[in-house]
Specification:
The complex is a heterotrimer. Chain A is α+β, with helices and mostly antiparallel strands. Chain A is built from ten helices and 21 strands. Chain A has two domains: 232 residues, Rossmann fold, CATH 3.40.50.300; 124 residues, Beta Barrel (OB fold (Dihydrolipoamide Acetyltransferase, E2P)). The longest helix of chain A is centred in the middle third of the chain and has 18 residues. The relative contact order of chain A is 0.11. Chain B contains 14 helices and no strands. In chain B, helix 8 packs across helix 11, helix 9 packs across helix 11 and helix 10 runs antiparallel to helix 11. The longest helix of chain B is centred in the last third of the chain and has 38 residues. Chain C is globular and about 65 Å long. Chain C contains 14 helices and no strands. In chain C, helix 4 packs parallel to helix 9 and helix 9 runs antiparallel to helix 12. Classes of the chains: A alpha+beta, B mainly alpha, C mainly alpha. At the A-B interface, strand 4 of A face loops of B.
């Protein structure tokens, strides 16, 4: 079922949790709400569920206006961050709960409920744990039971609040894949909240990036990565080096460091150049295009790439720079802690100082 | 302007339910607690302020007030020390029988005060195995103030520990362990780390102990011997006056005890307010 | 289990980090022995002098048995009433915000702070036929003072705080998520209360009611003024002990007291064991 949010806003006391925002979610889509804590993503999710009331605006599920509908009549499935399994009920009773509290008219009979519960437990591959209590389950198992419980009533939309937040890295990965498969198989519309960009990008059809109660950008993961439209999105997606530049002829400068812009016309403006860590090459000497002297402060060769941490030498940056080199490149020019190197970007995104708009893409040959 | 939508998030928040329950509670509380409390003072002052003072100025009443305060003055420090010791041992250490010790501590709550008085009477009275020996040495504990103090200590001994244990359990041992690592001695540790954290609960425990010590009736009436002007505490004096059909005088004395109870409650509200504020300041950071 | 095997491979002795175990535990044990346990010996010795037949005769005396019945029934009804009223109070205090909430919260402890004798004469006066409540109830044909109903009123007054103070913290700690989960699954307010909240609450509720019951069994000061103390009708067991004492019948008083003492100790231990078990179950099986 599609979800349509129209001009939704929310204020707690005097704190504006959500500025008026609109969002359309297609039937069968999986949407990730991504943002740091305090960005309003959980509030938005709870408003969609009806656990929180919006101060203004309209919410539609398909053709149905649910704005003033109580949570229990919205037919949503909600998976809580800490699962919120009923401690005093067995796994099977937890899953059956939503069916058992239905109106007598709609409620399936006992045998039917039992069958549905068994089916759901098999679906989450935990049929053998039906008689256990929540405190006897591992985190990953609790998560799957919470999901089965939420799906039991065949909700129109499935909402998940930090679904993998409390799990360790390995289980997280496994469950993520499993949820994606389940989604593709059943095709429910779902919205989940996360602060983990990798999770959002891997799982979602589209990602909604939020900050300070605003939607920053809504895009498919590939698009989001290729064309972040704001400094915030860029920062949040991570692993980026910022060159805070003044303009000097065709050069971007910062104290002793400078970069020749690839523009043919040679005009530049002051602003910030965002360079992703894998789009930064390291040379033993300055090139004609770049003079960015850096000192190696750490080398981490673990993983698919070698990560080199760099401190500026004779100029300043707000944060330590990072360069991700392929192992092959690194072996060609190995560096050690304390070495001086010169960085040269292969490409970057330039935000002019006076604009809040989209960045300009720059490429160096 | 769009209509303001409010959703109930927690059950029972629907105005109809909420206000029905609040009203019901307030009415019941008024009938069961407030009106009785007010009526004590109403009955005490029914014949005017002069009569009120006159009833209190009666020598027997004055002696009862004095004896009651004297008993409380002896009881409270004993139970203060014991309460702190007990709370320290059961919250800071693990040892076999810890749970049993905490259950034993609750005995005075569970035992009828009359039975408590009887226990002391049987032991220290002239027929008891200790009492007989005391009698030979011309020591009389029962039907005299020492007996009253002893049973009052018994009846009120759990209160300080009861206030301290939950708080000390919640605060954990880490602060104190840090102090030990920093080289604090046992006394410094208690004085400078533990005490500042528990002082309000401790003070409330003391106040509550005092209120109960002042008001103990059943146990004291067994061991006091009810000698007017000698071994009558204030609650016993209240009974005496009441049964003498001197209701106004009885309620005048009762109003003193009720005032102590009210001060205790006010102090408790204050302590809770402090704790809440401290807790909020802690979680805000 | 296998003590002999482990004897050779004892854990290395680790010196405790925090000081004062010896002092605090030692003085606690000394105090408990002196104040709580030693006095029991007097009762044991007194009753041991009686033959089994005498003992049985005294404790099954018709009037005494009638007093057991009155006491147990009144305590049961009083604690059931307090179960309902206490749950309501706890719910309103935890869930709602309203003016005067702090005052209400403080008032709940009034019965703990108010001396029982004061409560006794106040309730007796209020419910007497010419009292504020008594005169109203008389019009309805209900007589409270000097009847078993009066005993129930006095017992419930003195034990109101027990249920409130055991249920309140549990209610505060309930996670809103479980409730919200119930609602998103379509459950009505009532189903959420009955099927999600109550199962978490009822162990505390039972504990509170049991404490209230235990306290009511032993209540003396508040009851004797309002009860009328008519043999076979409105005479509680604590008073029976008192009456026997005034007759200087120490053996009979001791025998009845031993029954009361054993019952309260059994109740106390049962409550503590039950509480420990449900706490364990709640925090992980």
């Amino acid at each position: 079922m599609s979800i349509r949010l129209d001009n939704i806003s929310k204020t707690f006391d005097k704190f504006q949790a959500l500025s008026p925002m609109s969002l359309n979610i297609e039937d069968g889509e999986m949407i990730g709400l991504l943002g740091p804590s305090g960005s309003g993503k959980t509030t938005l999710l709870r408003i969609i569920a009806g656990l929180e009331g919006a101060d203004s605006g309209r919410i539609q599920f398909g053709q149905r206006d649910v704005t003033n509908l109580h949570v229990r009549d919205r037919n949503v499935g909600f998976v809580f961050q800490n699962y919120a399994l009923f401690r005093h009920m067995t796994v099977a009773d937890n899953v059956a709960f939503g069916l058992e509290v239905m109106d007598a008219k709609q409620r399936p009979n006992k045998a039917e409920i039992q069958k549905r519960v068994q089916h759901l437990l098999d679906m989450v591959q935990l049929g053998h744990l039906a008689k256990r209590y929540p405190s006897q389950l591992s985190g990953g198992q609790k998560q799957r039971i919470a999901l089965a419980r939420a799906l039991a009533t065949k909700p129109d939309v499935l909402l998940l609040d930090e679904p993998f937040g409390a799990l360790d890295a390995k289980v997280r990965k496994e469950l993520r894949r499993w949820l994606r498969n389940l989604h593709d198989e059943i095709g429910f519309t779902s919205v989940f909240v996360t602060h983990d960009q990798e999770e959002a990008l891997e799982l979602s059809d589209r990602v909604v990036v939020m900050s300070n109660g605003h939607i920053e950008q809504v895009d498919a993961p590939a698009q989001l990565y290729a064309q972040p439209n704001s400094r915030f999105v860029f920062d949040f997606l991570g692993n980026v080096n910022v060159f805070d530049a003044a303009a000097q002829g065709s050069r971007l400068t910062h104290q002793d460091a400078w970069l020749e812009t690839p523009h043919q016309d040679g005009k530049t403006q002051a602003g910030q150049l965002y360079i992703r860590s894998h789009e930064l090459a390291l040379h033993p000497a300055p090139t004609t295009q770049a003079h960015l002297p850096l000192r190696v402060i750490a080398v981490n060769p673990i993983g698919p790439e070698v990560r080199v941490e760099l401190a500026p030498d004779g100029w300043q940056t707000e944060q330590v720079w990072e360069a991700d080199l392929s192992h092959a490149d690194y072996e060609r020019h190995p560096v050690q802690r304390g070495d001086q190197v010169f960085a040269a970007p292969t490409s970057g995104y330039f935000f002019t100082a006076d604009s809040q708009g989209s960045p300009e893409r720059l490429h160096w040959s | 302007m769009a209509p303001k939508q409010s959703h109930q998030q927690r059950i029972g928040d629907r105005p109809a339910v909420k206000y029905t329950l609040i009203t019901l509670t307030l009415v019941l509380t008024a009938v069961l607690l407030v009106v009785p409390l007010v009526s004590i003072f109403q009955k005490a002052f029914i014949d005017g302020l002069a009569v009120y003072w006159q009833s209190l100025a009666d020598p027997d009443t004055l002696h009862a007030i004095w004896l009651t305060l004297f008993v409380a003055l002896l009881t409270v420090p004993i139970n203060l020390v014991f309460g702190v010791m007990l709370a320290w041992s059961v919250t800071r250490f693990e040892f076999p029988g810890r749970k049993l010790l905490m259950t034993l501590m609750d005995i005075p709550f569970a035992v009828s005060p009359v039975v408590a008085g009887l226990l002391y009477l049987l032991l220290y009275g002239n027929n008891g195995w200790i009492g007989a020996w005391l009698y030979e040495h011309d020591l009389q504990l029962m039907f005299a103030w020492p007996g009253i103090v002893m049973v009052t200590v018994f009846v009120t001994c759990p209160f300080v520990a009861r206030e301290l244990i939950p708080l000390m359990q919640q605060q954990g041992r880490e602060d104190e362990e840090a102090a030990v690592i920093l080289g604090a001695s046992g006394w410094q540790l208690f004085r400078r780390v533990t005490l500042p954290n528990i002082k309000w609960a401790l003070l409330y425990g003391v106040i509550l102990t005092n209120a109960r010590a002042v008001g103990e009736f059943g146990a004291v009436s067994v061991v006091s011997g009810n000698i007017r002007g000698e071994t009558n505490t204030l609650p016993l004096h209240v009974q005496l006056l009441y049964e003498d059909y001197q209701a106004t005088a009885a309620f005048a004395s009762a109003s003193l005890l009720a005032a102590i109870a009210l001060l205790t409650l006010i102090f408790k509200a204050f302590v809770e307010w402090r704790q809440e504020r401290a807790h909020r300041a802690e979680t805000d950071h | 289990m296998s003590t002999s095997l482990n004897a050779t491979q004892r854990k290395p002795r680790h010196k405790r980090v925090l000081p004062g175990l010896g002092l605090s535990l030692g003085s606690s044990l000394f105090f408990i022995s002196l104040i709580l346990l030693l006095p029991m010996t007097g009762l044991v010795m007194q009753t041991a002098q009686m033959s089994w037949a005498d003992y049985w005769y005294v404790i099954t005396d018709e009037r005494v048995v009638a007093s057991y019945q009155v006491t147990v029934w009144a305590a049961l009804l009083a604690s059931i009433f307090n179960g309902v009223f206490g749950l309501l109070l706890a719910w309103v205090l935890v869930r709602y915000e309203f003016p005067g909430k702090r005052l209400l919260d403080a008032l709940v402890d009034l019965p703990f702070a108010l001396p029982t004798a004061v409560a006794g004469i106040t309730l007796a006066t209020l419910y007497a036929e010419n009292g504020w409540y008594g005169s109203l109830l008389a019009e309805l044909g209900i007589k409270v003072a000097y009847t078993p109903l009066g005993i129930i009123v006095a017992m419930s007054f003195t034990s109101i705080p027990f249920v409130v103070r055991t249920v309140q913290p549990v209610l505060e700690e309930l996670s809103p998520e479980e409730e919200e989960a119930g609602i998103t699954l379509g459950a009505s307010d009532w189903s959420v209360f009955r099927r999600i909240i109550m199962p978490s609450l009822w162990p505390a509720l039972v504990t509170g009611v049991a404490l209230s019951f235990t306290r009511s069994l032993g209540e003396f000061g508040a009851v004797i003024f309002i009860a009328g103390n008519m043999p076979y009708v409105s005479e509680i067991t604590s008073l029976m002990i008192f009456v026997r004492l005034q007759e200087f019948d120490f053996p009979a008083a001791s025998a009845i007291a031993s029954v009361v003492l054993i019952v309260s100790l059994v109740l106390l231990f049962a409550i503590n064991i039950w509480q420990a078990r449900y706490l364990k179950r709640l925090h992980g099986r």
